[in-house]
Amino acid sequence: MTRAEKITLAIKMAGGGHPAHQQRYNLPCVHEEAVVEWCTTCTGAPAEWNHIRSCAVHDRATRGANKAGLASCVTCPDYQPETPEFSPDTSLRFDEFNLYPNLPGRRFNPSLIRYNNRLVFIWRNGWAGSDLYACRLTEKLQPDGLATKLEIRHPACSYGREDPRLFIHNDKLHVSFTGVTARHGHTNVLYAELGDDLQVRSVRFPQISGRRDWEKNFGFFSWNGEIYAVYTIAPHRILRIQGERTTWAYQTDNPVNWGGGEPHGGAAPVRVGDEFWSFAHDRVPGMNGKQRYRTIVYSFASEPPFRPERWIPRPIVVADPRTNPDNYSDVIWSGGVCLFGDLWLLANGHHDRFCSIDAMRHDELNSRLIPISD
Questions:
Q1: What is the pLDDT of residues 209-238, one digit of tens each?
Q2: Per-residue pLDDT tens for 50-59?
Q3: Which of 52, 63, 145, 160 is the right S-S partner for 37, CB 3.0 to 4.6 Å?
Q4: What's the CATH number where 299 sits?
Q5: Are 136 and 67 found together in one domain?
């Protein structure tokens, strides 16, 4: 039995498909050399996957599926990905072609967190009737082991589970998400506790007095052994959540003028010193007639009443319409952020089509935050 056959057999015995389907994504192989033939006809996977390249081991190869009998990085036992050095220019794309392609659906609107000294990544897989999948990532952002489907059963999300946000409460991993009850039904905000194996331990549906039919984008965070959530950003309205019971805890003014649309939540707020940092979003009309999403950042105090303190007056990221061929809006949505050394890692969703992990320098963002009073 060849080395490749042994690896394939081991993964199948563990319940997975081909090892490339479990662990590989679009990092170039260390043996890869220059493009010798450019692909102009392939559809589906990103075009760069289908170019024919020189290979130091196999003469010629492609990153994608086997083509004309050439070696393929997808099945090659000699594939060794180049591990990225994190920098503000780091951006890794994940989609259904390179992140667990044996699993159904798309890969978008993800979240990311560091839990028990390991990175956890989660995403939704569809537009209607969506499910959530989670996996671990290595320190080099490579998928580590098999992905886990979150088996969530609750009447408030009987049709779909969307837009997950990971957060930690009392040293336990949790995820908040949007639940959908019917194809055109109203949406609900729920949260679940996950075990160390990423399996669902419990699901809660907070009952909110005076709630709207369309509920999304709460910013869950933990303080003093209790769960709170930013319900609206301006004004800064805070919910206290105890299981499924909620109370309106605090409300303070947030007199910022984003110069754009109404701000909405994104990633779960992250504690940094005496503040929580919140990576949120708004949307504005774009030049192409579509709505254009933008990532915005503000901070609020780490003690009640959690008053907003600083903000960056301009969006830090704006959706790129050049990467959006067919969605109704140009979308960038940061569903999870993680402070990794001196870099922020942002888990971004793009146009309801694919996702990425992008790096931004903490010192640079911190220098741009100014007091809201200014």
A1: 877 777 889 999 999 999 999 999 999 999
A2: 788 899 999 9
A3: 52
A4: 2.115.10.20
A5: no
